[in-house]
Automatic annotation (TrEMBL):
SUPFAM superfamilies: TPR-like (SSF48452)
Coiled-coil parts of chain: none
InterPro entries: E_motif (IPR046848), PPR_At4g14850-like_plant (IPR046960), PPR_rpt (IPR002885), TPR-like_helical_dom_sf (IPR011990)
GO cellular component: mitochondrion
Pfam families: E_motif, PPR, PPR_2
One BP term from GO: cytidine to uridine editing
Keywords, in A-Z order: Repeat
Lineage of producing organism: Eukaryota, Viridiplantae, Streptophyta, Embryophyta, Tracheophyta
Protein source organism: Zostera marina (Eelgrass)
Matches recorded under Gene3D superfamilies: Tetratricopeptide repeat domain
PPR repeat residues: 93-127, 230-264, 331-365, 432-462, 547-581, 653-687, 690-725
Recorded superkingdom: Eukaryota
Protein name: Pentatricopeptide repeat-containing protein
Amino acid sequence: MIYSSTVHSIFPTKLFSPTNLLTFLQPKKTFSHIFQECSIHRKLGPAKQAHANMITSGFTPTIFVTNCLIQMYVTSSCLDYAHKVFDHLTHKDVVSWNGMITGYANVGRMCVAVSLFDAMPERDVVSFNSIMSGFLRNGKAHESVAIFVQMGRNSQGSTVSCRDFTSFAIALKACSAIQDCLLGAQMHGLCFELGFNHDVVTGSALVDMYGKCKFFDDALRLFHELRYRNSVSWSAIIAGCVQNEEFKHGLKLFVDMQRLGIDATQSAYASILRTCGQFPLPILGRQIHAHVAKRNFSSDTIVGTAMLDMYLKNGNVEDAGMVFRSLPIRSVQSWNAMVVGLVRNKRCSESMKLVQKMNNAGVSLDAVSLSAGFSACAGREMYLEGLQIHAIATKKALDSDISVANAGLDMYGKCGSLIGARRIFDSMTRRDVVSFNAVITALEQNEEYEETLNVFDQMISCDGMFPDVFTFGTVLKACAALSTPDRGLRVHDRIIKSGLGQNSFIGIALVDMYSKCGLRESARKIHDRNISHYQTSTSSSLSTTIPVLSWNALISGYSSLNHSEESQSLFSQMLASGILPDNFTYASIIDTCADLSTISLGKQLHGQILKQKLEGDSFISSSLIDMYSKCGGDSRSNMDDARTVFRTMRQRDLITFNALISGYAHHGQADSAIELLEAMRSDHGTPPPNHTSFLSVLRACAHIGRIETGLHYFESMLKDNGLRPRLEHYSCVVDLVGRIRGELGVQHALRIITTMPNDIKPDAVIWRSLLSACVCNKNSKVAELACRRVIELQPDDSAAYVMLSNIYAEKGEWDEVSRVRRVLKEKKVRKEPGCSWVEVRNQVHVFVVGDKAHPRWIDLYESLKLLVWEMKKQVYIDDSLDG
């Protein structure tokens, strides 16, 4: 055997100083040993020095030494150096070729690896295995299988036609990757024929393949048939349990593995940690963490990633952060697990900061990172940050990835940018159900209901595109918002044809749609079916919330149509059926108390809420504040109750603040409303005011005639808070300035309407406000203009005709009064009758002009006549005294 020169004969003495990287090498080592040890320990610098000294010393290396040098450069990812050494070889053996093929395959340069493979004068089984493994690692499983098939043929230039156990292991992993169990079963038969079925490597690969292809029973049977099981076999079956959601079985196998004294592998720990995150099992997860630390796997990147994912799925963000920070090497998967977990735990701001830190650290953001970044921006409506994520996705050419595009759609929709969402959707070359769901949801959430239904029609016209439960639920919400029962019926018809007619959650959406469209019988029929289906179902997967959600849909639907009495009746039926109300039920029924001014029922509900400790819910608290503010009686006492609810809240959101400001406005307490608004503007611990906040303050100012103050806050909206006034704000300001006495107020109000931005069109409400100002100031000329505009927008509005008639009557223009009354009669426009109600002994009595529906209507009219006679009598007495 030919030996190379020793280290002492060629290296300078100073090379072996105590601080030198080669101190781990022993004296009298050959070049081959140096290159091998540098390859093992990844010491590129000393290896380069050894290479340089080999050249300068004039030493002629053998093919073995050169192959060790090539392997060292390949291991260090210095392929340019490796290729130069390879090119200078006058005689290349199979090991030289295999080393280069492996190197290029490892870094994903499969084109070069394939060209080298094709150029090989002769190949051995390692050559085939290397190129197969390279294809598999680079996501080309089909090509890997093709090479496996080629191995079985006596192709030209190949010295072998057989496969070894490694060949089968790689090919079976390729079958797992493409989820082709039939091909895997054929390979299993070939293994049996060639006698590889009892080999532990091939057997473990077969267990892994059957597990990943969802044939868990076959995987388990094969595992138990193995004559010898090593840690890889156990890891494969435990991973199969997790992949097939056989979590308890996986835990049992892991315990059995420990009892047999078999050391857990990286894969086994990762699988069992995923189980602890899936259930979730936080206590067991901590125990596994301790076991991992004891076995010195804490610094392993894959195990550490699985561990922090487990903690995040258990809601333990702090421990997950600790594990993440302790990882010596963080892979892209580690970063992604942390980013996704923070979004899942609603820590969207922290997640976005981590994405930015990831980008700044030079970690290459992939599709998962960018999708999670979009989700973080969507969770907190961080529009500008979302634009930055979109820019990064475009720069990395990942904006066309369907998962990234879908997440971007969701972000733009939640941030209210329908143009951005539509731009992504229209540019997508491939769309799936999630894509359509994202844009449909974005349109529905931004109240573009017609366009929502148009995109739905576009979806069902696409071949192979089938709406799912989420699609139908969103579309039904759009139908409910538009109050279009015809379109709702068509959607219901498609639901039945798609086989989802018995789905419980779609059933709830149908109840909501029919009730809000006024089809109460249909709503009640589907509601009864939902309850019956729940009561007779034996499925454990059916949610226990189905009954209460169905009742909620029915109650809120009636309430939205101002059928508050029926809503309260339904609430009583719900309680009688034994269904416990939830937060949404209480919020809905409290709203009906506000509509009917049934303060006593509202207080009973408040007591029940306190008893069930639900007062911390912001929607319930906001509804209580609104109810106390709107109910009649002692307004000061009720507002005190509203303030008490507000003060006792642990967390106050924007809805709560707006509810109290609206209450102050309702009672004309402008100073209190302004004080609360100013607190929102100055205190960083409170949510900043929005359009609703300013609208309530403007109404409060109009209520008590604080004209200058109201105009100040109207101008302040855009100037100080960046809030562009909407139509409802202009309506309030028209009502406000219309209270100025004389011609000035009317002209000022008219000027505001005519100078509004072009994209804000006056509606009937704003013209009616102007008409009211004209009535107060007896301006018949502008009143005629306002009346015409109201009638153009709402031809059946009798109030406009009546107000115009009153103006002419005040001015004594009786001919004009007759003309207006005649037009009113010709157009058959009827004045809506007045309605009032009163609560006596916990029963609400409703009265309508000319109504005879009340059971004691005769007694009521007799009492009314008596009251009118007493009033006339009192007027006569007063006139007599004055005379």
